[in-house]
Amino acid sequence: MVEPPASRILVIKLGALGDIAQAIGPFAAIRRHHADAHVTLLTTAPYAPFAEAGGWFDEVWIDARRPALRVGAWLSLRRRLRGARFQRVYDLQTSDRSAFYFRLFWPGPTPEWSGIARGCSHPHANPRRDFMHTQERQEEQLRMAGIAQVPGPDLSWVEADTGRFQLAARYALLVAGGAPHRPAKRWPAGSYVALAGMLGAEGIEPVLLGAAGDRTVAAGIGAGCPAARDLTGLTGLLDIAALARGAACAVGNDTGPMHLIAMAGCPSVVLYSHDSDPALCAQRGPDVTILRRRRLDELAPDEVKAALEPR
Q1: Closest listed residue to residue 97, CA positions, set 122, 65, 120
Q2: Same domain, yes or no: 112 and 184
Q3: 3-class secondary structure, 15
Q4: Rounded Cα–Cα distance for residues 230 and 214 (Å)
Q5: Is 186 helix (H, G, I), strand (E, B) or coil?
Q6: Do 182 and 270 sit in the same domain of this protein?
Q7: Which of 113, 144, 175 is the last residue in one of the domains?
Q8: Can you give the pTM of this predicted structure?
Q9: For residues 244 and 265, is the Cβ–Cβ distance under 8 A?
Q10: Domain around 78
């Protein structure tokens, strides 16, 4: 496929972590397709260091996610977008917000645009797009824009000093947190305590991962299982991927870190309730098991342990 005549490319992917992880293949495909172009990513601050380390982009811009009524901030973004003279934009966020950025180029000139913005040059014209898994949806979007091949996610490039955590030779990652406004996606802390005890009895050190906002949950699990190591709030995205490469196994809720962990090749069990649909967003990797119940408190620790196959 001949690359379109474009020298400046913009990719929009604002978050969240799971979405960033599932865009790794599309990032690589865009970089390969536009090998000689200057490729810029527009993202949010938490994901910029990971995107910069990945080598897919020549430049990473931070989207400050301006409030709707801050007209001056929107005008500033408009000037920056128009001033960069992008020839093509890949909107991988495909939200109402990112589609609105297409309007910021009015009255023109408007770059070629792959996404869902009304009137764009390369729309993802599938009325069933919202019923597709994220990875298939993005792959189809890029095919419609002329990028036929999208590789699987590759995290072999990740480097991080995980030795500073001084973990045991065999350890398991437990991701017990998640979005605070969606408590139904969380397996009960007591169940994680029971699972951590089972792992410890087999000589596998339980290691708790999560964002700073998950510290209360992690503290509760640590109180019930003092042998568990709590790294909550202490790991960046590169750390998580590197830790996953060395872990015996991982168990977690349907939350962002589990996408990176599964993609890194760690034997993973991911727990789903009625609150999210694995058909649309399931973690993928070479060794992933999905366990789903209407309510996660219906899922027994013994059943989760039985699904684990530590390496």
Answers
A1: 65
A2: no
A3: coil
A4: 11
A5: coil
A6: yes
A7: 144
A8: 0.94
A9: yes
A10: 8-144
Of 23, 28, 22, the closest CA to residue 12 belongs to 23
| Longest CA pairwise span in the chain (Å) | 66
| Low-confidence stretches of the chain (pLDDT beneath 50) | none
Query: How far is it, in rounded angstroms, from Cα 192 to Cα 228?
Result: 10
Cα separations (Å) of 284 from 58, 86, 256, 279?
Answer: 28, 33, 12, 11
Per-residue pLDDT tens for 44-72? 999 999 999 999 999 999 998 766 667 88
Give the per-residue pLDDT at 68: 64
CA angle 32, 34, 38 (to 5 degrees): 120
Same domain, 225 and 254: yes
The CATH number given to whatever domain includes residue 93 is 3.40.50.2000
* 206 CB-near residues (< 8 Å, 6+ apart): 171, 172, 174, 195, 196, 199, 200, 225, 227, 228, 229
Q: Six-digit token pair at 117?
A: 């913005």
- Looking at the structure, tell me whether residues 26 and 126 fall in a common domain: yes
237-246 helix and 256-263 helix, angle to the nearest 10 degrees: 50
3-class DSSP string for 233-295: CCCCHHHHHHHHHHCCEEEEECCHHHHHHHHCCCCEEEEECCCCCHHHHCCCCCCEEEEECCC
How many whole angstroms separate alpha carbon 22 and alpha carbon 13?
11
- Give the pLDDT of residue 2: 53
Q: Is residue 59 part of a domain?
A: yes
Contact residues for 193 (Cβ-Cβ < 8 A; gap 6+): 221, 224, 225
Q: Are 259 and 173 in contact (CB under 8 A)?
A: no
Phi, psi of 131, rounded to the nearest 5 degrees: -110, 15
* Residue 174 · residue 268 · CB < 8 Å: no
Kindly report, residue by residue over 152-171, the tens digit of the pLDDT.
999 999 999 999 999 999 99
